[in-house]
């Protein structure tokens, strides 16, 4: 067997072997990697590369090394999960860089972070003024997290006492013209209803749809293969809100037009009741 053939075979083997090890060891996003995770990943990668291209290395030696290194990594990770003290020893602990709006210079020096690094971390969190910061923390992954002062936090519907409708994650129910029946049934919608929503937006059937998604409010987003056929969907909830307000205005108009005092009072009372209803359900009729 030629040297090139050996390298090809060993490379393919190393690729799938390290893929298997990666699945066993688990996965983290790059931003979540600690220094220990980073060094471990580089070491395993170097060992796999040596297995692939170093024809003088015995394959079994590299495999034993990879397995042993992966086993030790798994033991350390498991120990970190079970013991807080051991986790602090392996991964370190978060460091507070700003407290009560003040920069802690000693902690910056300890973590070898410059003022420019701190400002960059703050800007990545959309904070440009030091005066806006209550606490800034350097996490073990190297990411700076920021807690703003209470007066600089954006208002939420809860802060203003406004009721809002709960939402769940939107679900894709048509992919490449194929209807995902089980997902549609799980969401509680019928196939006939979905077809009607798809027809409203220019499709003739499900096969004309590249992607379709339903949000928690029942709105359907449709992406067609032929975008020229797409029709703008009428928003049902704002339409219902407008219809209710028109009814309320009509009742007031009837009250003005009639000379019958009993009928006039009845129209006014119904108008007031309808206005109260509109005020209660209006937060749920916004798209």
From TrEMBL:
Membrane topology label: Multi-pass membrane protein
Compartments in which it is found: Cell membrane
Residue ranges occupied by any YetF C-terminal domain in the UniProt entry: 82-214
Pfam families reported for this sequence: DUF1657, DUF421
TM helices/strands, residue ranges: 6-26, 38-57, 63-81
Domain of life, source organism: Bacteria
Nucleotidyltransferase is among the record's keywords: no
Predominant location category: membrane
Keywords tagged on the record: Cell membrane, Membrane, Transmembrane, Transmembrane helix
Keyword check for Lipoprotein: no
InterPro entries assigned: DUF1657, DUF421, UPF0702_alpha/beta_dom_sf
Family, as annotated: Belongs to the UPF0702 family.
Protein name per its UniProtKB record: Uncharacterized membrane protein YcaP (DUF421 family)
């Amino acid at each position: 067997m030629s040297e090139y053939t050996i390298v090809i075979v060993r490379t393919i083997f190393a690729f799938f072997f390290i893929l298997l090890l990666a699945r066993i060891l688990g996965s983290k996003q790059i931003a979540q990697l600690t220094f220990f995770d980073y060094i471990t990943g580089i070491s395993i990668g170097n060992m796999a590369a040596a297995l692939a291209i170093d024809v003088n290395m015995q394959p079994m030696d590299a495999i034993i090394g990879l397995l042993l290194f992966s086993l030790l990594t798994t033991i350390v990770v498991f120990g970190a999960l079970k013991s807080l003290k051991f986790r602090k020893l392996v991964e370190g602990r978060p460091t507070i860089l700003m407290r009560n709006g003040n920069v802690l210079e000693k902690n910056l020096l300890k973590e070898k972070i410059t003022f420019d690094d701190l400002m960059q971390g703050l800007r990545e969190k959309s904070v440009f003024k030091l005066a806006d910061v209550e606490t800034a923390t350097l996490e073990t992954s190297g990411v700076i997290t920021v807690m703003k002062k209470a007066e600089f936090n954006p208002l939420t519907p809860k802060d203003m006492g406004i009721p809002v409708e709960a939402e769940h994650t939107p679900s894709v129910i048509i992919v490449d013209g194929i209807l995902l029946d089980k997902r549609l049934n799980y969401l509680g919608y019928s196939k006939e209803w979905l077809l009607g929503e798809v027809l409203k937006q220019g499709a003739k059937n499900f096969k004309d749809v590249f992607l379709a998604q339903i949000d928690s409010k029942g709105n359907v987003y449709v992406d067609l293969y032929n975008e020229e056929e797409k029709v703008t969907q009428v928003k049902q909830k704002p339409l219902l809100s407008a219809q209710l307000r028109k009814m309320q205005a009509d009742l007031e108009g009837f009250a003005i037009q009639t000379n019958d005092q009993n009928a006039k009072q009845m129209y006014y009372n119904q108008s007031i009741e309808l206005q109260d209803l509109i005020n209660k359900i209006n937060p749920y009729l916004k798209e």
